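User: Teach me something about this protein's shape.
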Amino acid sequence: MQEWFGSQGAVLRGGVLLLVAIGAALVVHRIVFAGLRRLARPGGRMVDDSLLRHGEAPARLILPILAAFIALPGLGLPPHAEAVVRQVVALGTIASFTWLSIALTEVFQDLVAARYVLTTSDNLAARKVQTQVQVLRRVLVFIILIVGLSVGLMTFPAVRQFGATLFASAGLAGLVVGMAARPALANLLAGLQIAMTEPIRIDDVVIVEGEWGRIEEITTTYVVVRIWDLRRLIVPLSYFIEHPFQNWTRQTADLLGTVMIYADYTVPVDEVRQELHRILAGSADWDRKVWGLQVTDTTDRTIALRALMSAADSGKAWDLRCLVRERLIAFLQANYPHCLPRARAEVQGLSAA
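Assistant: First, the predicted structure itself:
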């Protein structure tokens, strides 16, 4: 009985000392990061700000684990209690460094985002780089988590063989066996293919399933398309590999816009063409590269006038098309109302009343 009480007392003393060590580590963490935040100048280097922001939380776990590891030999715990503490410290070390590795990928993404800004007018290179970094970062985080889980499992002798098998298959992302793994694996491989071949990028203007929108987010399994009316279209990654879609900003953002005007055969085409040029010249949305007006079709009642114009991006092209459509209709109404589409009929055989 005395021996049992002595063992329990040793566990209690060791537990108190362990809590003191962990508490001291947390105090040191608070002091260190408070000092680092004071030293970091407002608007200073992006790498310093990002390291502080993403490194503070992992360090809150790393420092107590390190303190427990250092204090463990001097705790005087019984062998069975020391074995439990060592197992917990080992698992905490693996988890903390897994967390730190993920945080470093976030720091790298922040640095790339600061170097390649999407808000510039010509952001093709920035969209290209940010898309690659975002997709590859998510794949890398997935692999880091699998490696961390595998190493953690291998600390348990009973499941060490399972952990080794899982670790060996991490490079292939083969967590789920059989048919259940096929959709996840297909999306993962599609993400890598999108990062390499770049059929879509962040902020690309696309038409998917008949919807016009911009690529807002690319994850490891799906793509978020922000529709023009602020709805979000969620599309699996594999869709962009297996199905055709329109990308309006694949190489450049500039576009050609068209406006169709239907008028009577008596409309003066040259006058309408000159009016189109005056409208475009007075608009800041026209990039002054391309313009024109042609008769592209005729029917038994009307002719079709196609106004062609260029703009720097899809948003300006849309606004310019709406402006041209409104102004040309107003021009015809004010100057040539008789040239608007009309239906002609010849009535014969009516007797006088």
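Now, about its shape. The chain has three domains: 7-115, 122-252, 255-339. Residues 2-39 form the longest helix (38 residues). If you'd like, I can walk through any region in more detail.
User: That's plenty for now, thanks!
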